[in-house]
Predict the 3D structure of the following.
Amino acid sequence: MTAAEPVILVVEDEAPIRRFVVAGLRAHGFAAVEAATATAAMLAATSRRPDGILLDLGLPDRGGLELLRDLRGWYDRPIIILSALGHEDDKVAGLDAGADDYLAKPFGIPELLARLRAALRRITRDQQPEPVLACGDLVLDLVAHRCTCAGREVHLTPLEFQLLAELLRHAGRLVTHRQLIAAGWGAQASSESAGLRLVVHQLRRKIEDDPADPRRLHTEVGVGYRLTAPTPPASG
Ligand code: CA
């Protein structure tokens, strides 16, 4: 392990999954520290100060959500939840408790690395506010109030502009319904789900080649949205 490698703490009680994740990380320039229990995770987090944490919520000795809240009390680097299939409520509760993102099991190493890199980039980007936000060929100039997509000018309403800016600030990462509603309607607004769906629909008509088959603005069912550089078409 060299000093330049980001250290990732992998908290997972199922040994095969933990080994799979650790091997994937080590093969791609990360150093990995392992923990199979919440107690070991807390110890490793305090002693090793990892650059990021991958956290399974179903741990044998303690509730993962409780551990997450404790970590968030002092740990300000990325935490990504490893969520078991069918535990939608846990996932949302985890994001509300301060997790940066989640990966639904089973997941592949490329997906894990993409999420992790996006989460780690946040640290440097959040420190220096950028007047121009970009994700692939989608560019939003916050000063000139202009948007271009694949080189062509896109006209946005003020609300569309606010929501797209929020998605671009978190490009590649999950943005929850709650975050988007706060960005568009203010932190006090709580029941703008219908309004949010409408604005997302309008945005897709402006930035997607086929709004019915989005390649940039992806729905994370029951949780929120994720903006990426255009993904290739689904096979078939
Ligand atoms: Ca587990």
